[in-house]
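Structure (tokenized):
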């Protein structure tokens, strides 16, 4: 049987999971049934066939004897794609609202661990028999959605895109046209040969040395008071809620050109401004200390194979919620991200992921409960960007209209923000604890309001206004 040891960070994600804190990524992709296509009901078999053809999706996790505490990916001999791909009809109501509601409920459920850890759901309007009349979207056809859930041990954001892209027409057709088949991989043993033992020992000593330095950096970045920001931290209820927002990419680029920095700086400032609006509308006091966002950064090199394990670090960014001027917030975000990039990915709380890569498997197995509880001491909210292909995508001839990424919630935290760019728009997926954040739609609206305000104040009239007058206008 072909096996592959879980990379250290993958193993950490595998052991961090609990019933109330499932460790899977997600994406809600919304399609429009084009004329002459089968629509949502008819796409189920196509989706199942394409998912079954992706080798990575046939792998499950099993324990191994060596290294002690380790685990390996192995082909599931009894793999049945019908256990992973299902169709669910939505209740009567507005399609987007009902799709987000059901997606939130489905994200609550941990993935089954004895089989390959992924699921896909085709969400169709009530009574959709394959793209008939009624309930048509602006694009001219009935909408349907596909919810994808992948365990974080199976995929980081970039690898999830590489794996999941195989369901789309463009990638599947290109593979078929190329006539390329996956080369058979000879069985590999997880037992090291005698000639490897000395090298493994030397490598482990070097890794532990690096871990000490990175660990010290993480400790220095940790807060002695782990309470964090009350609006963003809460005891887990095990429930999940999803809300979405669409931002115009050209607006983001206009702000970037006017203010400098990167598009990601603009999006992080938009998140900060939306959080400020949301807290003020709730009647909550703004935090005295700026809440900290963990901003994941991929360490995956171009051309890395899909099976090479999670390759992540992260930056730690103070979100300037107390700053009333949106331009000053953007400037503060830009300064913070510039410092992060100058320091590199192995300093601060963001280096937790790098530290995980240096620890032996047994440390992940035994230390997962403690590590999971430590997240609150390091950061208050996760804000991640997931890159998508720039080309237009479709499934069964039905064009992809929207795609909202979803990130898991860390223990003791109630909100995560994920962003993806597709079709000239930034798609925002907000995942929250359902009981802690019942007003998540208000925060989603705050994202669009804040981007609009940033565009206004960085335009020709905004640039000539003094900082003092701008602050007065936003008090």
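Design, position by position:
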């Amino acid at each position: 049987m072909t096996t592959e040891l879980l990379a250290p960070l993958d193993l950490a994600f595998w052991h961090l999971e609990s019933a109330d804190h499932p460790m899977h990524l997600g994406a809600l992709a919304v399609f429009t049934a084009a004329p002459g296509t089968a629509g949502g009901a008819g796409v189920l078999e196509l989706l199942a066939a394409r998912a079954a053809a992706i080798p990575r999706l046939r792998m499950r996790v099993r324990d191994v004897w060596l290294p002690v505490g380790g685990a390996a990916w192995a082909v599931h001999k009894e793999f049945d794609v019908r256990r992973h791909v299902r169709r669910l009809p939505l209740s009567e109501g507005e399609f987007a609202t009902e799709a987000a509601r059901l997606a939130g409920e489905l994200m609550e459920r941990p993935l089954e661990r004895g089989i390959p850890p992924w699921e896909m759901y085709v969400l169709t309007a009530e009574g959709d028999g394959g793209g008939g009349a009624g309930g048509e979207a602006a694009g001219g056809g009935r909408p349907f959605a596909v919810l994808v859930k992948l365990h974080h041990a199976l995929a980081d954001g970039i690898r999830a895109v590489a794996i999941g892209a195989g369901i789309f027409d463009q990638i599947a057709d290109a593979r078929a046209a190329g006539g390329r088949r996956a080369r058979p991989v000879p069985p590999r043993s997880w037992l090291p040969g005698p000639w490897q033992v000395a090298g493994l020992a030397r490598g482990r000593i070097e890794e532990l040395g690096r871990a000490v330095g990175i660990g010290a950096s993480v400790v220095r970045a940790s807060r002695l008071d782990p309470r964090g920001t009350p609006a963003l931290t809460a005891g887990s209820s095990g429930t999940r809620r999803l809300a979405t927002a669409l931002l115009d990419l050209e607006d983001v680029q206009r702000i970037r050109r006017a203010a400098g920095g990167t598009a990601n700086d603009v999006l992080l400032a938009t998140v900060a401004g939306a959080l400020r609006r949301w807290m003020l509308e709730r009647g909550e006091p703004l935090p005295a200390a700026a809440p900290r966002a963990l901003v994941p950064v991929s360490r995956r090199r171009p051309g890395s194979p899909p099976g090479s394990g999670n390759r992540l670090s992260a930056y730690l960014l103070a979100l300037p919620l107390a700053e009333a001027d949106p331009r000053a917030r953007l400037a503060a975000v830009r300064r913070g991200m510039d410092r992060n990039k100058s320091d590199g990915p192995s300093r601060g709380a963001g280096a937790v992921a790098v530290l995980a890569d240096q620890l032996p498997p047994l440390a992940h197995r035994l230390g997962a409960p403690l590590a999971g509880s430590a997240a609150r001491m390091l950061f208050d909210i996760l804000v991640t960007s997931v890159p998508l292909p720039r080309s237009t995508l479709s499934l069964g001839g039905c064009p992809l209209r929207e795609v909202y990424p979803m990130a898991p919630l860390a223990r003791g935290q109630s909100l995560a923000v994920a962003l993806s760019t597709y079709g000239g728009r930034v798609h925002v997926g907000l995942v929250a604890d359902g009981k802690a954040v019942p007003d998540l739609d208000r925060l989603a609206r705050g994202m669009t309001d804040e981007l609009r305000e940033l565009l206004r104040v960085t335009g020709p009239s905004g640039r000539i206004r003094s900082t003092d007058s701008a602050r007065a206008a936003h008090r």
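Reviewer-requested clarification: The longest strand covers residues 24-32. The two ends are 64 Å apart (CA to CA).
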